[in-house]
Amino acid sequence: MDIATAIVSAARYLGAALCMGIGAIGPAMGEGNAVGKALEGMARQPEAAGNLRINMILGCAITETTGIYSLVIALLLMFAAK
Question: Which of 28, 31, 43, 57 sits in a 20 to 30 Å window from 20, CA-based?
Answer without folding.
Answer: 57
